[in-house]
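@channel sequence for tomorrow's demo:
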Amino acid sequence: MPDRGGGPTGPRMRVGRPSRRVRTLLMTLGVLAVLAMAFVMFAGFWTDWLWYRSVKYSSVFTTTLWTKVGLFFVFGLLMAVAVGVNVWLAHRLRPPLSAMSMEQQNLDRYRMGVAPYKKWILLAVTALVGLIAGASAAGQWRTWLMWVNGVPFGEKDPQFGLDVSFYAFDLPWYRFLLGFGFAAAVLSLIAAALTHYLYGGLRITSPGARATAAATGHLSVLLGLFVALKAVAYWLDRYGLAVKSSDFKATGNWTGLRYVDANAYLPAKTILFCIAVICAVLFFATLWRRTWQLPVIGFGLMVLSAILIGGLYPAIVQKFQVQPNEQAKEAPYVEKNLKATREAYGIDSTQVSEYPGKSSTDDKTKLRADADEAASIRLIDPNVVSPTFQQLQQMRNYYAFPSNLDVDRYKDPVTGKPQDTVIGLRELNLQGIPKNNWINDHFRYTHGYGVVASKGTDADSQGGPVFTESDLPSKGSLGSYEQRIYYGEKTSQYSIVGGPQKEIDYADDSGEKTTSYKGDSGVNLSNPINRAAYAVAFSEPQILYSGAIGEGSRILYNRTPKERVEAVAPWLTIDGDAYPAVVNGKIQWIVDAYTTTNGYPYASRTTLGDTTADSLTAANNQRAVVAQQNQVNYIRNSVKATVDAYTGEVSLYQWDTKDPVLKTWMKAFPDTVKPKGEISKDLMDHLRYPQDLFKVQRELLTRYHVKDAQTFLSGSEVWQVPDDPTNKSGNAVPPYYLSMRMPGDSAQAFSLTTTFTPNGRDNLSAFMAVNAEAGTSDYGKIDILKMPSAETIDGPKQVQSKFNSNETIAEKIRLLRGGDSEVEYGNLLTVPLDGELLYAEPVYVRGGGLKYPLLRKVLVTYAGKTAFEDTLEKALNVVFGAEKETPAVPPGEGDTGTNPPPPPTSDNPTVQEALDDAQKAFDDGQAAMKKGDWQAYGEAQDKLQDALKRAEEAQSKANSTDKSGDKAADKNADSADNNADNNADNAAYKSPGRAVGEGGGSGGDSSGSG
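structure tokens (generated this afternoon):
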């Protein structure tokens, strides 16, 4: 019988081959894996589309998407065709027989291995290079859209006479095309050479000719294309000199032509262009001559020329012509750089004026009066008092304020005039909720509640803020508005609202209130496909099956203001500081946005991340600029954006109506930016000059404040932004907002200010301010007060140093630090006053059982004299040696409660008893205020109101029986009412925890002040 055991004469056993069931299972798993990957990709795409549609900016998504898709397929296909055709052509041009050398015998094995799969290999190679090239091209969607939609600047560069738009919009696209062409030529050359070598067209060790005629012609054409592209590169490099960066000791990051560029590099590039064209023609000529001799000679000549003409000659010009007389040679080019840089950064209209540095009067009374008119000195530092807001107005642990509050302008509730106001929102703090779980984190605790605002220039008797809007729900001078905050700076994760699960709204003495979101923001989760997509996108399977999601449920995400603006306008650079404002009954986040380019000829470049960094961004990274392009040499605050804190609605408003970069993007994304005329009056009142733009401009103005090329080159007038004297981080001092009056102006204006010191020294060299009050004719006007070079005027660091070294002040500081207390220094504000500079700095104390800083002292320095007092008024009186004049007020008129009029009397015992109770309630309230017992103060106010009401009722009853006493009783009741009103209002005004005119304390009663 034959051997059945698999021996030499029997059938061979199949070893290791899986069964049909296993193969089916593996195939099924493979299909499921592919489907899962496809759904993950679909989920990302689908959720993005749903989000853009929810914010009504779907055109941004579709325009961006189709642009990327188009570039991907066009350039991916071009690259695949270029490589594939050259591989196919090299194979087609292979020699029919190859010499049987050892080299060819070794290659035969590879040819035989490749032969059955050559079509698949060709397809895989072309697909791979196509995918890589397509992905690279898709990343150039901004470059493509700017090239297609470019708008002229109306400015020509001084060297070539071309519109600036050529360098900003056209040249970047031409450089991309050139780079793509080089990549296609090099990859095609490599692929063709390998194919020729594999099939015998090229030989390395075989005897005879190293290349066939066909291979020679094919590779020569590809080399000719490469050299032709190099010729184009030389020609574009001529224009590239206008935007070329180079280090120049006088300017830092210099952009534009210098003497050596105009007189050596520019002619060298032209000569190299001509040589490259000739060299390319010689390579193409090998199609007929079939020899490498001339092309190789031409290529060698091009390389030698590049070394001699493009490298050695400019170095000789720089060494022997420029360096011996640099200022004279470079001056004309510096003039161009000065002009272009000032125009590109919007500092060309900056007014630089000489400032005497000394007071022009000895009249101390006048100086004291002028000090009050010069500025509304802000004692409440928004970067220090956040813990105070937190302690007094947090109300619940699941609320929090940002670490840096904001400065805005609101009407004074007493005078009705605009005043600097420190404002913050009571945002959601998930770390403070009673118990963290998925339902609490995403369904129940979904939003913050209310605005808290205080006067910027005043503190109460305890050193705390004087709140003009406070309590929960917030009430005060801001009127009625939607207080729920679903979108904010601290709202970084998603919430699901509007469904069957109720949300915690806020809590008061009666307990927690619930609500359900009524806005149309977010994406509807009723659709199971949407739920599945978000479950995958957020890696949260509970979204798919949770019973807390039902009809009407909506998911909110991308909730920070800067994040939303960046998403709907990916072509904008976002300012680091979004700030809230109550506008038309809504809380609106206001976000400043910029258009930028790095292609403005002759304008020096700056790095946004470095230029906008200061001591605040170092401590709070959330305040850092969100830059699409970190290195720029042109910037405009072209867009003002708002984000509704309740609905999340994003609105973009055109601010700079002349900016060609914005006009270009508005052509690319039509109907996304609203015209400037649609900005409401209420919104306009809260717009301001942006900080990051100001920081970029002040950094440039350290060098570009001079207009004379010789002075610029000498470097004698270079300034620097001083380090923050109150911060040990070593970072630049931040600019400060305050209302102030510049010399020559008739009234105060909301301004953004900074100081300069000489390079490497600490004394003051200049003071800079910009009018930050939007809607006024002087908005954006930059003024620099230049200190006399012959005088040594103290800069911020020196002022702070003298303050710290003063023995008397040091002793007071030591006493303030008694126990476990800590001293914190507020913003050191600088104010021009009668030829000199007034410095003012609030000093806070944190400790002694308190976890939050309270204002305890105020430092004021003027003309070398320093005061350290409890209040700003006292400090100014000491510095100027004169007290503020106050007009005489007749007794009983305009009384502030300091010397209250005597209590009224009545012949009616019942009325008199009520009046006595009113007087006692008022006295009790005053005593409670001095003790800081705001609950007792609130109770006293209630008793005061009740007593006045009883007096009025008793008097009315008496009038009905005794008409003869009518006039006297009315007079008594009115006198009592007026007296109590005046004293109670004054007490409420001074209360640290009560809103002016509202009376609501930070933990006391919220009744009115009577």
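heads up for whoever presents: Confidence is low (pLDDT under 50) at residues 1-15, 887-901, 962-1010.
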